[in-house]
């Protein structure tokens, strides 16, 4: 088992969350440089309305102008994660694993597969079939149909086998905010949520517990809370 600190930050604006991530991430890199074994952290939170652009993102995939963004109460941040543009907001569960993959004997591809598996198995608890699609990042519902729709986004950064950024699972998310972007730069595909798929509000605290349990099992973690 690998020891990890679990942190549920509740509602947290993107700026402070980014600062926390960067602080922990840089601390891990410094520990490794000094020959120490770094701690691992798993951070859960929900953000206020925000659009984040990945390091290879296309600015034109943000379809709204600054005045409109101010009207809908949404901020915009450029980040160093992979992927294009996405939306975060209330009712969406964010998970930021800051893991030392060397402790876990994982490569980056296997790490991403395990993150995907955590989401897929969490959705299965609610009888939602989430799937991977070749060549596309994230978890999808309705694979190989005319109504493929994305339910979870994944974007990570990894340096010296230390990870940051992570996943966003749409639980009770207001999906109208996705109308103002080209989600993840993929044209012609829709976005969904657990609430939309099941036709009812979901207790996000239950989803947190389920997702944390999947991380514990799949990554073989021993949590300190």
| Strand content range | 25-35%
User: In one word, what is the shape?
Assistant: globular
In CATH terms, what is the fold-level topology? BirA Bifunctional Protein, domain 2
Unreliable stretches covering 5 or more consecutive residues:
none
Evaluate the radius of gyration.
Answer: 17 Å
Helix tally equals 5
**In the CATH hierarchy, what is the class?**
Alpha Beta
Structural class: alpha/beta
Helical amount: 25-40%
**What's the CATH H-level homologous superfamily?**
Bira Bifunctional Protein, Domain 2
Order of helices and strands: EHEEHEEEHEEEEEHHE
CATH architecture field: 2-Layer Sandwich
Main sheet, how many strands, which sense, barrel? 9 strands, mixed
Number of strands: 12
Number of domains: 1
**Quaternary class:** single chain
How far apart, in Å, are the first and last alpha carbons?
16 Å
- Let me know the average pLDDT: 93
What can you see in these coordinates?
The structure is a single chain. The protein has a single domain, classed as 2-Layer Sandwich (BirA Bifunctional Protein, domain 2). The chain starts with a strand and ends with a strand. The protein is of the alpha/beta class and 225 residues long. It is built from 5 helices and 12 strands. Helix 3 (108-124) packs across helix 5. The model has no long low-confidence stretch (mean pLDDT 93). The protein is globular, with a radius of gyration of 17 Å.
